[in-house]
Amino acid sequence: xxxxxxxxxxxxxxxxxxxxxxxxxxxxxxxxxxxxxxxxxxxxxxxxxxxxxxxxxxxxxxxxxxxxxxxxxxxxxxxxxxxxxxxxxxxxxxxxxxxxxxxxxxxxxxxxxxxxxxxxxxxxxxxxxxxxxxxxxxxxxxxxxxxxxxxxxxxxxxxxxxxxxxxxxxxxxxxxxxxxxxxxxxxxxxxxxxxxxxxxxxxxxxxxxxxxxxxxxxxxxxxxxxxxxxxxxxxxxxxxxxxxxxxxxxxxxxxxxxxxxxxxxxxxxxxxxxxxxxxxxxxxxxxxxxxxxxxxxxxxxxxxxxxxxxxxxxxxxxxxxxxxxxxxxxxxxxxxxxxxxxxxxxxxxxxxxxxxxxxxxxxxxxxxxx
Length: 370
Fold this sequence. Notes:
This protein has one helix at 17-34, and strands at 2-3, 36-41, 44-48, 52-56, 60-66, 72-76, 81-85, 96-107, 116-120, 131-141, 149-150, 154-155, 167-170, 179-183, 191-196, 199-215, 218-223, 226-238, 246-250, 253-256, 260-263, 267-271, 274-277, 284-291, 306-309, 312-315, 322-328, 332-337, 340-342, 349-351, 356-360, 367-369. By secondary structure, it is mostly beta strands. The radius of gyration is 21 Å and the shape is elongated.
C-alpha cells in the first residue's frame, strides 16, 4: 500500500491543486510500469484541478482506498476522477480490476462534470474480468448540470454478489444520469448488479434519475442507499428483448420529485423503504410507478409477480400538489401490503388500466381506480 503523498501530493490547500494533479499523473505512470497498485488516501482534503485520468493496464489492477467517509476526500475543482481500464489482453486471466473504497469524491465546479467516470475494460470471450468494485463512498457533485457517478454501457460481473459491492465493466456512451446502466443486447447484458450503501445527493433536473437503467439489463439489487434531490430515484426502461429483467429495491431512503418509475420489468420487490415524494405544483407525482408502455403491442411485457410491502410512502402536504403512493398500470398477480402512507395529496394506491389479480392487504387510507 502506497500513500498518495509518495507521488508528491499535498493535503489541505487549494493552492496545491497543480501539485496534486501532477501527483495523480505520476500515479498513473507508476501503475503503467508496475501493473498492480494499492494507493491509500490519507486523512484530509486533497484538492486538484481538472480531470485526473488513470489508465489501468491489462493485466493489472488499481485499488484506491481512504480512511473512511468524511475522513479522506479527493476534491476536484474543475473535473473529476476518470479511470480507464484497458481492454483485457492475452497476458492472463486476471484482467484488470478497479476498487475504490472508504473515501469521499467531491466534484466542486465545472460544466457537466462527473465526480467519477469508469470506462473501458472489455473482457475477451471466454474469460472473466474483475470489473469495478465501489464500496463505502460518498460521491457528490455540486454542479447541478453534472452527474454524481457516470457509469456507461457495460458487461457486469455475474455470480459475484456481495451486498457491499457494485461490480461492473464499462464502455463509454453518452448519458447524464447519476448512475447509468445500459445493456446493448441480451448477450452482453448487465446481470446481477448490486448497488449498495451509496449516498446520492444532487439536483438532477429534466427527468434525470440518480439511477438510470436501460436496455437489456437483468437483475438489479439496490439496498441500503440514500437518494436526495433528484427528479427520480430510479428509472428503468427495460428492452423488449431483455431475457428476464427483475428488481430488488430494499431498505433505501429516498426524497425527490418522484420515487421509482419502472417500465416493462418482469417482476421484483420493493420492500422496507422510506420514499418521500416532494412533487411539483400542477404535476402528478408518485412514490412507485409500475407499467408497460408497450402494452397494446406487447402485453407479455406487463409487470407481474411484484411484492410491494413494508414501505413508508410520504409526501409534502401542501396545496397544489398531487402525489400518489403506488401507481400501478398493467400490473398482474402481485401484492401491495403492510405499507404506510403519510401526507399524500392523491391516492395511496392508484390502480390504472389493465391491472388484474392485485391483492391490497391492510387496506390503505385511500385507494382509487383510474
